[in-house]
Amino acid sequence: MKRGISPLISMVILISLVIIIATVTLFWGTDFVNVIITSTESEQQKQFICLNEYDLKMTESCYKEKELLFTIENNQNGQVNKFILNLIGSSASRTIETQGLTGFGKKSYIISQNDVPQEFELDSLTQIKATPIIPIDDMEYGCSNVFVGNNLLGCCIGYFGNNCEKIRGCT
After folding, report:
1. Residue 107, phi then psi, degrees to nearest 5
2. Each residue of 88-108: pLDDT tens digit?
3. Which among 118, 122, 147 is positioned nearest to 54, based on CA atoms?
4. Do 104 and 55 contact (CB within 8 A), yes or no?
5. What is residue 122's three-state secondary structure?
6. Can you tell me the distance from the alpha carbon of 83 to that of 152, in angstroms, rounded to the nearest whole number?
7. Do the strands 125-136 and 148-151 form a parallel or antiparallel pair, or are they unpaired?
8. Contact criterion met (CB below 8 Å) for 95 and 133
9. How many CB atoms sit inside 10 A of residue 143's CB?
10. Claim: this prediction has a pTM higher than 0.85
């Protein structure tokens, strides 16, 4: 007659195995959830900084003589290291970097055809979006929720005043 392990011993082994698997899963799950919570909190803090320490406005934008002219104004104290410009044209878009801006500052920018890739023509441009890149904890962070943008005007107005010609059907 063959003998197997008794039902009591098999039950003890089965319960021990379940407890070991549950303990390992619990520790792994706790660490996993803590990492997700920490990264989410960090991201929310950065977005909070972007929304509360930066008030950026693009006050003018126009195209003149193969140059893009625009002004960005910062009405808060936050420093901007640089801007990532998304130049949106009628048939394509390109991304380039440009200089930043100090707190409570206003700066005019000029982008020439030489500053963009050859296959992109500035005269096809219809819109500009500028995403600020800001310093947080000695690192750079892109405030994607605070981009400033403007539809491109065919002729210059405001700050650029009388220096602009009537182009693109401007009256």
Report:
1. -140, 140
2. 888 888 899 999 999 898 998
3. 147
4. no
5. helix
6. 17
7. antiparallel
8. no
9. 22
10. no
